[in-house]
Amino acid sequence: MADFQRRIDTRLRKALRDYRLIEDGDKILIALSGGKDSLALVELLGRRMKIFKPRFTAEAIHVRMENIDYESSTEYLEKFCADCGIKLHVVTTSFDASTDKRSSPCFLCSWNRRKEMFRLAQEQGFNKIALGHHQDDIIQTMMMNLLFHGHFEGMSPKLKLDKMPITIIRPLCLEHEDDLRAMAKEHGYKSQKKICPYDNDTKRAEMAELYKKMEAVSPHARNHIWNALQSK
To answer: CB within 8 A of 222, min separation 6: which ones?
Structure first.
């Protein structure tokens, strides 16, 4: 087994244990965008589903927007999920950016995707939704919140929703993006890429670059930031 795969498996077990992300009887809906992180999440949870404890079931949802072009079809995603033993739900929806000038097209797109995800989860009795955010995502989100909004907050590994009986979990919360990138290359993932006419936000890319500089200055920056997030 490759070193990156050992690290991924070790961190996944730690995340599931420390944050109690998966319990016996859970029915989990995986948000599959088609990128490397969500593909890795499907593969990893597909493997975990075959382990006796905890006993859980998982399916995936892929939401496509009618007004956003894609470079590939859903055939690859369907085969990928089938190979992992995961049922895939493909849902198509759309949004009209001209109908709500109060929100950006990116917000409207994200909101409509999540609306379909929550709808399916409630209709089919899923009690948890698994998102593919890794540790780098969570730290960079904190940096964006701190620099642009003035508050120190990332994304929680586990969040129970108030308005519906669903818990959001992030099983990849301890994973490093470099390891997931290596896994995607080793396993030959074919990312589903959308061609979005509204995608001109470079803030996250800027945060990723800033984060790299912080790690160059302090090799322990990742652990220090993560520990600070967990202690707040």
So the answer is: 135, 139, 176, 215
Q: Average pLDDT over the chain, rounded to whole? A: 91
State the sign of the Cα–Cα–Cα–Cα dihedral 36, 38, 43, 44.
Answer: positive
The H or E element containing residue 158 is strand 158-160
Our separate counts of H helices and E strands in the chain read 8, 8
Alpha-carbon distance values, 110 to 84, 117, 181, 228 (Å): 26, 11, 24, 28
Among residues 29, 6, 10, 120, which one has the least CA distance to residue 81? Answer: 29
The amino acid that residue 116 corresponds to is E
Helix (H) or strand (E) holding 169: strand 167-169
Residues 189, 222: Cα–Cα separation, whole Å: 27
Its pTM surpasses 0.90: yes
Say yes or no to pLDDT of 65 above 90.
no
Q: Three-class SS string for 104-153? A: CHHHHHHHHHHHHHHHHHHHCCCCEEECCCCHHHHHHHHHHHHHHHCCCC
Three-state secondary structure call for residue 14: helix
- Amino acid symbol at 156: S
